[in-house]
Write a structure and sequence with these properties.
The chain is mainly alpha-helical and about 190 residues long. It has three domains: about 15-75; about 80-115, no CATH class; about 130-180. It has nine helices and two strands; from the N terminus they run ααααββααααα. It has helices spanning about 15-20, 25-35, 40-45, 50-75, 105-115, 115-120, 135-150, 160-165, 165-180, and strands spanning about 75-85, 90-100. Strands 1-2 form a two-stranded antiparallel sheet. The chain is flat and about 90 Å long. It starts with 12 loop residues before the first helix and ends in an 8-residue tail after the last helix.
Length: about 190
């Protein structure tokens, strides 16, 4: 005969735990619900397969709901709304749809968890061999952009502007090349 206090577990606890976990109950919440300590809940999960399966099923439903809601926030969604107002003393209901744009924080959260190698906050920006002279390359690109801005200024002499044409295209090509090497994508083409 095993020693210790008799268990407070009842077979109906599994179904109660499943429903509680479907709405987000934690082990602490379950312990409060069953008037036991958290360690008892942990022991029930480890020792009673029916209880463990019920908790797992309930949590899977809750997690699925959260994933669905997060995905909807990350990708944008339509929400049907009803507005009630008074017209000539009578309540009037108007149904309409609101277009909710994607939420940037939800997108970041989703991507950091689903694709951590590409989206983690402290990922390396370049490969090991590529970072040896990126500062000088950026400075050179900046100088070329400055020269391009000077070249774009209107000139009084059309012959002088025509003569700078090849220089301008060389600057553009150099800036594009630096941007490609540094994986910078410009909005302008």
């Amino acid at each position: 005969m095993a020693g210790g206090r008799p268990t407070a577990y009842k077979p109906e606890n599994a179904e109660i735990a499943r429903h509680a976990c479907m709405i987000g109950a934690t082990n602490d919440t379950l312990a409060e619900r069953f008037a036991v300590c958290r360690r008892t809940i942990d022991n029930w999960i480890a020792a009673i397969p029916e209880f463990s399966a019920a908790v797992g099923e309930g949590r899977a439903v809750a997690d699925g709901s959260v994933v669905s809601a997060l995905f909807a926030r990350a990708t944008g969604m339509e929400q049907r709304m009803t507005k009630v107002f008074c017209h000539r003393g009578q309540p009037v209901m108007a149904n309409y749809t609101v277009q909710l744009p994607p939420d940037v924080r939800a997108c970041i959260f989703w991507l950091r968890n689903r694709r951590p190698e590409q989206w983690r906050e402290n990922r390396p920006l370049t490969a090991e061999g590529d970072d040896r002279d990126w500062v000088s390359e950026l400075e050179a690109a900046s100088e070329r952009v400055r020269l391009a801005a000077i070249a774009e200024r209107p000139r009084a002499d059309p012959a002088q502007s025509a003569a700078e044409g090849p220089v301008r295209s060389e600057v553009d090509a150099a800036v594009r090349g630096a941007a490609e090497r540094l994986q910078v994508h410009s909005v302008h083409s």
